[in-house]
C-alpha cells in the first residue's frame, strides 16, 4: 500500500525553496534549483522498497521504510522531480533470502510499475534483485554492503547499468578495522598486551567476508589470529566461545556477526569475567536494541559502520527531523541509508530530465549516467560511485580525500543511555577514544 503524499498548499518562493534545500543537503539544493517555484502536483512517480518489515530484521526494515518515506515527503515539498511527486510502495521481504527478495521486487515492478527501487539491506547474495531490475530497465539503489554486487556489475556492466550499491562493500570493514587499530596504537591511545586477535563470525556470506578480510590482512599489521570461530545464529548462549577466549586471552576480540540481540548477550556474558581485550562488534551496537539489552555491559564497546548518519551539522539536523517524525527511539542510522539513496536517485533524475517507467530503458540509462558522475554530500557523508562497480568509495581506506568517499565510521559507546560517539575517521570525529572499563590501564 502506498504512503499518503501530502502536497504543499502554496507555491514556495525561491528564497524559501533554497533555505529548505540548504538545511537538507546538496542534493536538495540541486532539486530546488531545478524545480524553483514548481509544485509537486504532476503525475505521481511510483518508487518501491523491498524491506524486512517483519521477522528477525524488522528493527532495521521499519527504519528503511521510514527513511524512504521521509525522503519522499521532503523531495515532494521541494517540488518533487521536475514537478512530479514521489509515491512510495513497500513489500515485505520477511526472512529475506534471494527468492523472497526477488519476489518482493517483482511485485513492486509488476503491480506498481515503480521507476526505482530504493532499499536498505536484504540478507542474501546481494546479486539477485539486480536481474528483475535489469529486465525492467529501471534504477535500483541498495545498501546490501556486499562484494557480490561489485563482482556482478563488473561481469556485465551494460546489463546491470541501473543497479547501484549506495555504500562500500563489506570487504572494506576488514582492512579498515586493522588500519583503525594501527592509528589508535600510533596515537598512544591503545597498547596491545599481545599480538593475538580472536575473530568470531556467523555462517553468512556477509560476516564471513569481513572476518576473512581481517584474517587475510592481519599479519600485515602484526596480528596473529589466535581464534577463528564460526557460531550458529541466532545465539543467546556464548559460554563455549567465551571459554576459548578466556583460555587464551587476546588483545582484541572482533565479532563480525551483526544481529544486535545476539551481540548484546555476548557482552552481558563477557563483562562479569572479562579478558583484557578491546571488543569490536560489527554494526549491531548501532541499533538501540543493543544498549537496551546489554545496558551497562555495552559501555566501552567499539563498533563500526561503512554507512550511517554523521554527527555533524547535516547528520544532526537529519536526526532531529527523523526523531521528530518517528519518535525518540527511532533508528535514524538505518533510516539514513534509503534516505540518502532516494536523494541521489532523485537528484540524478532531475539532472537527466526525469525518471523512466519499466521498459523505458533509454531514459533510465540517462539517469544512471548522472548517478555515476554525481558527487553527493548527504547525511551519511559523500556518495561517489566507482565507475566499474557502481558501489560507493570508502574513506579513508580506499580513498584518502574525505570529500570523495563515504566515511568508514568507528564509534564507541561511552554512556549506555546514548548512541555511540564518533571517534574516527578525521575530520568527522566528535569525541575521543576511551579504554573500556574492564581493561586495567
TrEMBL record:
Transmembrane segments: none annotated. The keyword Cell division does not apply. Residues 44-392 form the Leucine-binding protein domain. Keywords: Amino-acid transport, Signal, Transport. SUPFAM superfamilies: Periplasmic binding protein-like I (SSF53822). Belongs to the leucine-binding protein family. This is ABC transporter substrate-binding protein.
Amino acid at each position: 500500500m502506498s504512503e499518503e503524499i501530502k502536497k504543499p498548499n502554496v507555491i514556495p518562493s525561491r528564497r524559501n525553496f533554497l533555505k529548505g534545500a540548504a538545511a537538507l543537503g546538496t542534493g536538495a539544493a540541486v532539486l530546488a534549483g531545478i524545480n524553483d517555484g514548481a509544485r509537486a502536483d504532476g503525475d505521481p512517480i511510483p518508487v518501491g522498497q523491498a524491506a524486512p518489515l517483519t521477522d528477525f530484521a524488522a528493527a532495521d526494515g521499519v527504519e528503511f521504510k521510514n527513511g524512504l518515506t521521509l525522503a519522499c515527503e521532503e523531495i515532494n515539498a521541494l517540488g518533487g522531480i521536475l514537478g512530479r511527486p514521489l509515491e512510495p510502495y513497500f513489500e515485505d521481504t520477511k526472512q529475506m533470502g534471494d527468492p523472497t527478495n526477488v519476489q518482493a521486487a517483482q511485485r513492486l515492478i509488476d503491480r506498481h510499475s515503480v521507476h526505482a527501487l530504493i532499499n536498505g539491506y536484504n540478507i542474501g547474495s546481494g546479486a539477485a534483485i539486480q536481474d528483475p531490475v535489469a529486465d525492467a530497465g529501471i534504477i535500483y539503489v541498495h545498501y546490501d554492503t556486499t562484494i557480490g554486487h561489485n563482482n556482478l556489475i563488473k561481469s556485465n556492466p551494460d546489463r546491470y547499468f541501473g543497479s547501484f550499491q549506495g555504500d562500500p562493500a563489506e570487504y572494506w570493514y576488514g582492512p579498515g578495522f586493522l588500519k583503525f587499530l594501527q592509528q589508535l596504537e600510533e596515537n598512544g591511545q591503545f597498547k596491545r598486551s599481545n599480538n593475538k586477535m580472536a575473530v568470531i563470525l556467523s555462517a553468512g556470506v556477509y560476516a564471513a567476508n569481513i572476518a576473512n578480510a581481517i584474517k587475510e590482512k592481519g599479519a600485515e599489521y602484526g596480528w596473529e589470529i589466535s581464534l577463528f570461530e564460526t557460531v550458529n545464529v541466532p545465539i543467546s548462549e556464548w559460554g563455549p566461545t567465551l571459554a576459548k577466549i578466556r583460555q587464551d586471552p587476546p588483545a582484541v576480540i572482533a565479532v563480525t556477526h551483526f544481529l544486535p540481540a545476539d551481540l548484546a548477550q555476548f557482552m552481558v556474558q563477557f563483562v562479569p569475567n572479562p579478558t583484557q581485550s578491546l571488543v569490536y562488534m560489527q554494526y549491531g551496537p548501532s541499533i538501540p536494541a543493543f544498549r537496551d539489552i546489554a545496558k551497562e555491559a555495552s559501555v566501552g564497546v567499539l563498533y563500526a559502520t561503512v554507512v550511517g548518519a554523521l554527527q555533524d551539522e547535516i547528520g544532526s539536523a537529519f536526526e532531529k527531523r527523523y526523531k521528530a517524525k518517528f519518535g525518540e527511539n527511532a533508528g535514524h542510522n538505518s533510516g539514513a541509508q534509503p534516505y540518502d539513496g532516494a536523494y541521489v536517485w532523485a537528484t540524478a533524475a532531475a539532472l537527466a530530465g526525469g525518471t523512466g517507467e519499466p521498459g523505458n530503458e533509454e531514459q533510465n540509462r540517462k539517469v544512471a549516467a548522472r548517478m555515476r558522475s554525481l558527487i553527493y554530500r548527504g547525511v551519511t557523508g559523500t556518495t561517489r560511485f566507482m565507475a566499474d562497480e557502481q558501489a560507493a568509495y570508502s574513506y579513508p581506506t580506499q580513498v584518502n580525500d574525505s570529500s570523495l568517499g563515504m566515511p568508514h565510521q568507528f564509534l564507541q559507546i561511552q554512556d549506555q543511555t546514548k548512541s555511540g560517539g564518533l571517534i574516527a575517521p578525521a575530520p568527522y570525529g566528535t569525541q575521543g577514544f576511551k579504554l573500556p572499563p574492564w581493561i586495567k590501564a
